[in-house]
Design brief:
about 200 residues, mainly alpha, Helix Hairpins
């Protein structure tokens, strides 16, 4: 019986080592996945900010150039005027001929889908938004799966620890019985020897 309990204890200890190894493995894997997900979320968010800034700058530029029509309310906004300076303090400026004769109008419609620069940036921005959403979803899913696996392994580990304690207690109990039986056997052997010695 002691050997059976010892063998069972050894099996449980092996299973416990495997459970600990599995916990360490999934924890390391989860950490790596989390770092990757958070990195991708951060990168896609930064890219969206850059795209949005570029779109805003280009939109303003093209509206100011007349390439994109301004909304009616935008024409009502007052522009900042240069500070008033006495005429004698500055020489009159002449605009270069290219500014008045051939103002910049652009080659292509910047909002045209497929090749307009603003349309391309908006498309890229949408892709980065999708990427961010994808990695956020992956992070949530990975965490749920990790929590489920960890719960199973932690429960298994706890059960194995208790099982090992039970086997240790059983081995100690059986060993105690063996020790008592051996002591009783020794005592009776000594009594028998005394009786035999007395009779002879």
């Amino acid at each position: 019986k002691i050997q059976v309990a010892s063998d069972s204890k050894a099996e449980s200890e092996t299973s416990l080592q495997e459970a600990n190894s599995d916990i360490a493995s999934i924890t390391a894997s989860r950490k790596a996945d989390r770092e990757e997900n958070l990195f991708q979320i951060s990168e896609s968010h930064s890219a969206q900010e850059s795209m949005t800034n570029a779109i805003n700058i280009l939109t303003k530029f093209y509206k100011d150039s007349g390439m994109i029509e301004k909304a009616s309310w935008e024409n009502l906004l007052q522009k900042r005027s240069d500070p008033i300076v006495a005429p004698s303090a500055r020489p009159p400026l002449e605009e270069p001929a290219t500014w008045t004769v051939h103002p910049y109008t652009g080659v292509l419609d910047p909002t045209h889908e497929g090749h307009g620069v603003i349309a391309v940036l908006e498309s890229l921005n949408a892709q980065f938004m999708e990427m961010e959403a994808k990695y956020k979803q992956a992070e949530e899913t990975n965490q749920v799966e990790f929590d489920a696996q960890l719960t199973v392994l932690t429960t298994l580990k706890s059960d194995l620890v208790q099982e090992i304690k039970n086997f240790v207690a059983e081995i100690e109990r059986l060993q105690g019985q063996v020790n008592e039986a051996e002591a009783e056997h020794q005592r009776k052997s000594e009594e028998l020897e005394s009786i035999e010695h007395y009779l002879l």
